[in-house]
Amino acid sequence: MLIRSDNDLFPRSAYLKGLPATVTSRWRHRVASLAPSPSVDMAWRRSMRVFASALAERGATSVLVIGAGTQRMSLDAFFTSYPGIRVAYSDVDVRAAVDVFCDAHELPFKDDVFDGVVASAVLEHVLYPERVAAEMHRVLVKGGLVYSEIPFLQQVHEGAYDFTRYTLSGHRRLLNHFAELSSGVVAGPGTALVWAIGHFSASCAPHPSLRGALRLAARTAFFWLKYFDYLFDQSGAAADGASCTFFLGKKEDTPRPDREIVERYVGVKTLRHT
User: Fold this and answer.
1) Share of the chain residues as helix, strand and coil, in percent rounded to the nearest 5
2) Any idea what the Cα angle at residue 241 is, between residues 237 and 245, rounded to 5°?
3) Do residues 67 and 119 lie in contact, with contact meaning Cβ atoms separated by under 8 Å?
4) Phi, psi of 235 (to 5 degrees)
5) Most buried in the list 200, 233, 248, 261, measured by CB within 10 Å?
6) How far apart are CA 67 and CA 104, in angstroms?
7) For residue 22, what pLDDT is reported?
8) What is the number of other CB atoms lying within 10 angstroms of the CB of residue 233?
9) What is the pLDDT of residues 95-151, one digit of tens each?
10) Could you give the C-alpha distances from 161 to 62, 136, 156, 168, 211, in angstroms and in order?
11) Distance between CA atoms of 43 and 246, rounded to whole angstroms?
12) How many CB atoms lie within 10 A of CB 79?
């Protein structure tokens, strides 16, 4: 547990206690798990294969996962195809299956020690995304790789620890100290619509106890809308209305110019200020 003693948001004392009580009961989790997922993922597996293969070709040995949460089992299974790569898992969530509890704003590692960093659905949950992006850059070796996913059109999904949303261009700008290898849509407007219907339904609940049931019913009734994302794929309109975007990049010493990022916009809006 490597967190500064003066970190008031994640105090050390919280990690010395037992696991906190779960707000949602087990039976609700089981019922929710029976409902279809509201999202598609058109990028993770393909991008991670590129990420891991490129590292393996270079003889890379270490990857840091930031905000690992419950990803350890699936990532361990994925990296079995790359036995030379050792993965370290980190998070601040006391329930997370990790090797180290640490705050991504102050990663407790020396400069230039990891060959790759994975941050999937993490940067929307941190107070200062630019600071975390700088830490990711700092701990990577020269030419190290980063894979990031950030939601755009999604409602709050981690309560009080949900702060920020990014467009695809904003995602690219946040990681402007990395050369872009690929970027695009993880889940598009279909997924965004399923999320919106679910939260609209929950908002109609006359009593808080019914919100989960209404959201679950809406997901079950409208989950099929997410499959339109495969039709929209990486179109400009899909990028403008994406539920989530991804970025795969390589560490550089100098940042990408802001004008270059603006000019690389792939959406369909034609507004220009200059």
Assistant:
1) 40, 20, 40
2) 105
3) yes
4) -65, 160
5) 248
6) 8
7) 56
8) 11
9) 999 999 999 999 999 999 999 999 999 999 999 999 999 999 999 999 999 999 999
10) 28, 20, 9, 22, 20
11) 7
12) 17
The DSSP code sequence of 96-143 is: S--SEE--GGG--S-SS-EEEEEEES-GGGSS-HHHHHHHHHHHEEEE
Q: How buried is residue 123: exposed, middle or buried, by Cβ count under 10 Å (0-12/13-18/19+)?
A: buried
Burial class (CB in 10 A: 0-12, 13-18, 19+), 92: buried
Show the tokens assigned to 203.
């908002």
Q: What gap in Å lies between CA 213 and CA 204, rounded to an integer?
A: 11
By the 8 A CB rule, do 78 and 48 touch?
yes
What the chain holds in terms of domains, given with CATH numbers, is 34-188+233-255 (3.40.50.150)
For residues 195 and 155, the answer to whether their CB atoms sit within 8 Å is yes
